[in-house]
Give the backbone structure.
Amino acid sequence: MVEFLVELYISQADSEAVARGANKARQAAEELTRQGTRVHYLQSIFVPEDETCFVLFEAISADAVQEAARRAALSFERVSEAVSSSRRGRMNEHGLDAGDAKSRRDDHDGDNVKSLTKWDGPAALTRRVQQGQLRSAARKERL
């Protein structure tokens, strides 16, 4: 099975939504698994400053994770294949499993599925945080 990261946005003012979403994600994954589609909820990480929540699943496909997110009523922005150093064996110089950091693309839903093929370092993380701050500011302007 492969790990996938679901990215969604949650207001700082509604931090309880993280716990509710995590419970719903876990239940949806368990339901799909009972129905024959293997999906496991692993964890959620909430970044209040960026109003961003990341939900980590392990599943047979991105489609299975998208279905779990839909059943959990998570309004997600995208699903990305992820490589986690804590669940793998041999690591490369970036802390990623050398065997898993190869180019992959899941074309089931090109708009919402993005493969993570390598660690781009701190600059990429800084860009992601800045992008989150811009999206957060845009959402606040709409309110």
Notes: Residues 88-121 have pLDDT under 50 and may be disordered.
